[in-house]
Design goal:
Elements lengths: L1 H13 L8 E4 L5 H17 L5 E5 L19 E2 L2 E2 H8 E2 L4 E8 L2 E8 L8 E2 L2 E6 L2 E4 L4 H10 L9 E6 L1 H7 L2 H7 L8 H10 L3 E3 L5 E4 H7 L14 E6 L7 E7 L3 H14 L3 E5 L4 E5 L3 H13 L11 E4 L3 E7 L19 H9 L9 H11 L6 E4 L3 E7 L9 H17 L4 E2 H8 L6 H13 L3 E3 L11 E4 L3
Parallel strand pairs: 1-2, 14-18
Antiparallel strand pairs: 2-7, 3-4, 5-8, 6-7, 8-9, 9-10, 11-13, 12-13, 14-15, 16-17, 18-19, 19-21, 20-21, 22-24, 23-24
Helix pairs in contact: 2-4, 10-12, 12-13, 13-15, 14-15
Length: 485
């Protein structure tokens, strides 16, 4: 999955019409100072343009972005007796996180420096800050307007570390937060003293000590372990709303529930609450009838967790919402998706709230990085449901999980979406989509393979998949890959 993610990243960068303010291509030139200046420029530009990362790629031509390979490996370089990577980190101020990665793109060796955007102040190399103007590297001081904008962007608040409630007495901390749930989730024995509990909460950044022997509760601690989110004025609207409707529209509400507990302490109960109220079908086993839920619980669990983790907490007055209709489930959260919705299956995920995401992964509330949506699609296919629909806008992301439909009930968009997702899932699993695998996906009989061929043809026409072997004339045995492969 890691190599696939890197290859996909290179394909995305190559598809750019030209080098950008946050992407630089090199072939084999190694100049220690110039690389440091580029890291400063790329980091500052990524911040200025709200990009989660910047990239310095060795092994691509800068004009047509051809992959030519490189002999540059910065991990083996030295300045005197000092490793270049360590020297570079010393020359950059303040500290900026950058990662050096070497890998093969097909048979070509590439080397990538992945750089975080500037955060607290502009990044300087040997005391000088640089910026990108188009594809050119310039001194930041020569562009005072950009420098002012950059300073305005380099101190964004980090949601998880901000304070939800200040100067709380120790005994009140233990009442406001759901301590039993915290201990159970992390499989911890109940500490022997109040101080031991508070120390552990401080260690996890759930609370902070204040100067007057009391404590501050962080947003991270409140949003995850609140007994009641209404206690926290700025977080009360971030409570999860679950709405059940009578039919296929919002005209008649059966029930509305607001989950007031924190996301972690209330997660299991919330998923059980949803799952217990979803429609089910009776299935006859060998001896007994059993109920089979209409939707895979694993998919609902992962999609709900993603909605909590990836929401934009800076958008006030709204929070995650789960709406359940007679024929579908809609899961939405505030915030523009950080990556293209067509790349959810293969792309390494990016999160606005990395501390929240990391802690929720540790608590096994969501999947490890890069595997969640793959498993959602896989479980939905195994339930023979229509493909989920991902809808992104400037202010929200919505995922629609549809109830059962026959192939005849699906429209062209349903079929094309399912074909693309099936093809992408096959590819990230190291396989290819064929007419047969798509027939299996839709339960189409072998003698009706032309129906699958028509769906494949429509998906190619939509620009979502392509032939793996352009020379092949067989449609029945052809292999297909997603458009980005």
């Amino acid at each position: 999955m890691i190599e696939t993610g890197l290859k996909n990243l290179i394909d995305e960068l190559r598809a750019l019409p030209s080098e950008t303010e946050w992407v630089e291509f090199k072939e084999n030139k190694f100049d220690p100072d110039e690389i440091g200046e580029y890291i400063s420029a790329l980091s500052n530009s990524a911040c200025l343009h709200d990009k989660p990362k910047a990239y310095l790629v060795f092994g691509l031509t800068d004009k047509d972005h051809r992959v030519v390979g490189t002999s540059v490996n910065l991990k083996t370089k030295k300045i005197g007796n000092e490793e270049y990577e360590n020297w570079l980190a010393r020359m950059l101020s303040p500290n900026v996180d950058f990662k050096m990665v070497e890998f093969f793109y097909e048979e070509y060796p590439l080397f990538i420096v992945i750089v975080d955007p500037a955060q607290n102040q502009p990044i300087r190399f040997k005391g000088v800050a640089f910026i990108r103007i188009g594809s050119y590297k310039r001194k930041l001081a020569d562009f005072p307007e950009k420098e002012r904008k950059l300073w305005g962007k380099t101190n964004p608040p980090v949601f998880e570390t901000e304070l939800a409630l200040k100067d709380v007495k120790d005994v009140d901390v233990l009442n406001i937060l759901d301590i039993p749930s915290y201990l159970k989730i992390f499989n911890l024995n109940f500490p022997s003293s109040k101080k031991a509990i508070l120390d552990k909460l401080c260690e996890e950044k759930i609370i902070q000590k204040s100067k007057n022997s009391s404590y501050h509760i962080t947003n991270l601690g409140a949003i995850l372990f609140a007994e009641d989110l209404n206690v926290f004025e700025n977080l009360s609207r971030k409570a999860i709303r679950i709405i059940f409707y009578k039919g296929k529209n919002r005209l008649e509400t059966i029930k509305e529930q607001i989950i007031k507990k924190g996301y972690a302490s209330g997660f299991v109960g919330m998923i059980e609450y949803i799952n217990d109220r979803l429609p089910a079908n009776e299935e006859m086993g060998i001896a007994l009838r059993k109920e089979v839920k209409m939707y895979p619980e694993s998919a609902i669990r992962e999609l709900v967790a993603n909605a909590l983790i990836h929401q934009d907490f800076s958008i006030k007055g709204t929070g995650p919402m789960i709406e359940i209709f007679s024929d579908r489930i809609e899961i939405s959260n505030p915030g523009k998706p950080l990556i293209d919705i067509l790349r959810f299956i293969d792309h390494l995920p990016q999160s606005r709230n990395e501390k929240l995401a990391s802690l929720m992964r540790r608590m096994n509330i969501c999947e490890e990085r890069g595997s969640g949506i793959d498993k959602v699609i896989d479980s939905i296919e195994s339930f023979q449901l229509p493909a989920p629909d991902f809808i992104g806008d400037q202010n929200f992301l919505k995922v629609i999980v549809y109830g059962p439909k026959t192939l005849k009930q699906m429209d062209k968009k349903d079929k094309v979406r399912a074909c693309y997702q099936h093809c992408a899932l096959k590819f990230v699993s190291g396989d290819y989509m064929t007419n047969k695998t798509l027939r299996d996906r839709f339960k189409i009989s072998e003698n009706n393979y032309t129906s699958a061929s028509k769906i494949i043809s429509d998906t190619i026409e939509a620009g979502l998949i392509k032939d793996y072997d352009q020379e092949s004339t067989s449609k029945k045995f052809a292999k297909y890959i997603p458009f980005w492969a």
